Amino acid sequence: MTRLDGKVAIITGAGSGIGRAMAQAFVTAGARVFAADLSAERLEETAAIIDAPESFATHVADVSKPEPIAGMLAAVEARFGPPEVVCNNAGVLDRMAPVDETDDALWQHVLDVNLTGPFLVTRAALSGMLQRGAGIFVNTCSIASFQGGRAGFAYTATKHGVLGLTRSVAAAYGDRGIRCNGIAPGSVKTNIASGSEPSPSGWELRKKGLPTRPPQATGDDIAPIAVFLASEDAAYINGACIVADAGWTVY
């Protein structure tokens, strides 16, 4: 079993879905996990499931804004020490809206959470990692990072951006001890929030372009990949994105 003994990890979006499964898997692998989410209630549920107060702590933060991120970094250092691993996992869906139905508010909301958030968290954590000469980022991308879609424009655009962020951080800082990789899940059962009610026309457009797809994954199918990428077993992997979609994108 891959081990993360003693590593300090921040996981955003840890109140549910993939983030919750990551938090469980990291604690099981020996890491000290600082779980962040916008919802205090969901974080309490995660904490109750993990039940490891000596190696697990929660923090309510809106990671789309700089000020809460600074507070999150200060809090994790006070509790466990400087973060060695950061999992940028927090995200939202859009309305599955095509371009002509994507208004400014929807675009900005999805952009703020899905792309600005990972950028801000990465920038905040990076300075300390560079001083220490080591650090690991694991970013939750998507199969939407690699392909277009008939609808879901804002989500797809931001997930392309997260992949670009992942590769750019790896390229810029790999020679200074930083590794940055991504995971691209396919369809996963989560309660990830959407911008608002789904667009009926967008869903119809989307269905026309969908291949026959495998059954949905759960967060437990994705979390072990994050553990691997955060471990020394992946020491030679940088700037990569592991697709975990049961073959959906090859149909």
Q: Can you tell me about this structure?
A:
There is one protein chain. This protein is α/β, with parallel strands linked by helices and 251 residues long. α1 (17-28) links the parallel β1 (8-12) and β2. It is globular and about 45 Å long. The mean pLDDT is 92. A seven-stranded parallel sheet has the order 3-2-1-4-5-6-7, sandwiched between helices. The chain contains seven helices and seven strands, in the order βαβαβαβαβαβααβ. It starts with 7 loop residues before the first strand and ends in a 7-residue tail after the last strand. The longest helix is centred in the middle third of the chain and has 29 residues, at 104-132. The protein has a single domain (8-250), classed as NAD(P)-binding Rossmann-like Domain (Rossmann fold).
In short:
Helix content is 43%, strand content 15%. It has 251 residues and is of the alpha/beta class. It has one domain: NAD(P)-binding Rossmann-like Domain (Rossmann fold, 3-Layer(aba) Sandwich), CATH 3.40.50.720.
Strands of the biggest beta sheet: in what spatial order?
A: 3-2-1-4-5-6-7
- CATH architecture level-2 label: 3-Layer(aba) Sandwich
Number of self-contained structural domains: 1
How much of the polypeptide forms β-strand, as a percent range?
A: 15-25%
Question: What is the CA-based Rg, rounded?
Answer: 17 Å
How far do the termini sit from each other?
32 Å
CATH superfamily: NAD(P)-binding Rossmann-like Domain
Order of helices and strands: EHEHEHEHEHEHHE
Using the coordinates shown, work out and report the CATH topology.
Answer: Rossmann fold
